[in-house]
Each structure stands twice: as C-alpha cells, then as structure tokens.
Amino acid sequence: MSDTHAKDRAIMSAQIGRPLRGASTAAARCKLGLPIVAKVPSQLDDGTPFPTLYWLTCPLAHRRIARLEADGMVRSFEAKMAADSTLQAEMIAAHEAYATERGNEHGGVAGIANWQRVKCLHAHFAHHAAGGANPAGAAAAAEIEPLHCTVPCAVQEQHGGDSETEDATEPQERYKRNHEWREPARTDDATS
Q1: Is 92 within a domain?
Q2: Domain count within the chain
Q3: Is this model's pTM higher than 0.85 or not?
C-alpha cells in the first residue's frame, strides 16, 4: 500500500468516525486536498457484498445533504422525475452506469432496485462528486457547494511512538477529526 493510499485511508476513517470496511481509495478531493468520496470495492475483504460503490466521507457535505434530506429533497426530486421523462431517463442511466461500474451487482446507486427512485442523496452526491453523470447528485451539489472549509476536517494525531507497539522505521500516520473544524457559512464559501 502506498504512503498516499495509507494516509487517505486513515483520513477517511477519521472523517466517518470508524474504520473503513474495505480496501477503499479516494475518488474525489476538496480544495484542501482531503478525500470527499471513498471508492469502495463491491465486495468487502470478508466477501460480504457492498452495494455502495462511492461513499461520502466529507463531514461538510454529509451535514449539508442531511439537511436537504430532512427538508424533503428526496421526495421533491422523485416528483420532478415522475413529471419529466428526460430527467427520469438520465436518472436510470446513472443507475445503469453505477451498476455496470460495480459489476452489475446489487442494483443501482446505493444498491437501489427501483431505478425511478432516489434512495440516498449522500450516495447520489458521492457518485456525482466522483465524476458520475448523476442528476440527483448534481441537484444536491447545486444546493451544498462550494465545500470550502477553512481548516481541515481531519488532522494527524500527535503520538509519542511507543516502541513496543510501533516500528520506528515505519511510522503509521493516524488521523482524527479536527475539533477546530466548523461548518463554514455558504456565503463565506463563495468568497473563499
């Protein structure tokens, strides 16, 4: 595993507050160079199928999308799809592309079986942020971006290097959530 890959995995674990469940890699980054999205294999290390190919790790995006979901954006987007056959076709294409990239396992975005629905805006945004043509993700992005934090959401832990538990020739970088991180106001984002 490369140093960059190991560092990304440590940062993504700190961002989501738990160890990663598979050999994930960073699929998109913020302006501070930190991962926003993890690309997760379709099968975890223990062989368990994992339906979410792109997992949102950015705490700022996660927080803002949670508000959109609470405000009913999933229902309103589904209503728009029901009334717009072009949007519906674009959403079905996004699910098809996601399933194909994952190897046609476990449904569309986030494993959804009904491709005329939106299961989770977090997953749709993650797909969009990783470069996927995803209209639900693009709609969420229009509401939450820019994601311009002024301080990193994860920082390297300071540790003393316990010789019994660490090999001094191969230091392991550990990261934790940055307690100084705060959600920037969207009006401040545009000028940063």
Answers
A1: yes
A2: 1
A3: yes
